[in-house]
Specification:
By secondary structure, the chain is α+β, with helices and mostly antiparallel strands. The chain is about 30% helix and about 20% strand.
Amino acid sequence: MISNAWRKAVTLVAVGSVIAALAGCGHRVEGGGPSVPTYGGTLTFYDPVQYAAWNPTNSLWSNSQVANNIGERLIWQDPQSGEYRPWLAKSWTIGDGGLTYTFTLKDSITFSDGTPLDSAVVKRNFDQHALGDEKRGIVKDPFWSDYGGTQTPDAQTVVIRLTKPNAAFIQFLSNYRASSILGNSYLDRDLNGQSELTNWVGTGPFVVESVNGINGVTLKRRDDYHWAPDGSQHQGKAYLDRIVFKTVGEGGVRVGALQTGDAQIARNIAPYDEASIAEAGGRLLAVPVQGETNDLTATLNEYSPISDRRVRLALQAATDREAINATVLSPSYPIPTGALVKGTPLRANSSRYFTYDPVEARRLLDGAGWKVGADGIRVKDGERLSIPLRVAPYYQVSQSVLEVLQSQWRKAGVEVTLTSPSLTEYEAQAAEGKDWFLTQGQNSTAEAGVLGISYGSDRQNVLKQLPVDKRLDELIAAQAAASDPAERTKRIADLEDYIFSQGYSIPLYDETQVFGLAPNVHGFTTESTARSWLYDTWLTQGGN
């Protein structure tokens, strides 16, 4: 049965596109009803993806919706303005030509186990991120580079030193996966211990109450919390008593739960369900995920049929993004115009590379020696031009998008074999790599330097290229070293131009998180990469 409040709420289907636009400004949505927030209540949050290991650098969408409400950072990046604001640190300075970052911590902050936040524990966190710990199985975080160490002149002062300037570094200190700070009892554990959410000890407004395997987490409010980031809608403890996160894979069930009141928020509303949410009186929030656009990135190993640049450029020309959007997506997912999502600071416009041109695709494949066979699939030296693609389990729309792409590429004579592995199978196959030629994905952080994290040969090295592309590394270093915004914008454009001229990336759509909200949800907010920040969220009491 659909509740009366749901039926009576204002229908927003006519302004769905406006909501999507507003999401990019403030990443906040308000409902009707009382304007004065109230304390209490349990919010149930349905997520389509099961939870995995809980180490802090795990950026799995489902995990990070939870973790963002437990661990906190020195600074908060306002998702509307991009401005950095105090959080665990009350002030900071950047000196020595961009090599030194000095932070002064707020007073009287404690972790959920009662231990104090001080400079020593901040240093331990940053050392672990930047250096890893081989003996305990903890690897280096690719977001951290050029780390010269952290000094602690006193209990409230943290001095981070870099070995060379990195214009993106200040933003990475606000990033949920790169710089969240957890307590000493957590840091004392090995990788297995750190991967258990029940061992997380943070400074956030919520703490872990229980974990139900890979399918559920319950957080409860921390009543002594009083150091929310500047710019929050209130100070003091959070409004909600509890948050119950549940894995619910079926999209129709998530939508139905919003209607019945079994859930108040559902993540990853499918494009075909967006209208039904609004028509039934719910609210839709489409949040652009600042950082890399969702793309297919080339893996250039010795087995790859796309090691030839001409083949990669042909696949780019054979991709009709407007048709993908019209067929299986919605206006919530903007058509990409560059390597970075619209709204990401300093992004370039590289749309000249994305023209759908099937004639050019066929010309390039002909020139690369791939001839059309009897069944329409191209052949060279007795081998078919066949590319395995896996449906990425992290993305709601992956399968439908790749099915359209499969059809488009076949018109150019390229065979796509599409499979749908489980999350565990997907990650195992990615590690083997022999028939893994294109990877769907993106890194999300509101800084153009995220391209360096992905493509840098000393970072994630997504191309898996041997020998490495030295020119690519030079362009990454040049944008990181540029401190002047105008100069850095040019350097980012140079980097994007090279990535696409080499055919390294085939953008599919601007990554977006689409949330469905019941009408009794107010003050829902995300940070700049669409991870839920539920501190300001409250519920109308007395029914759904």
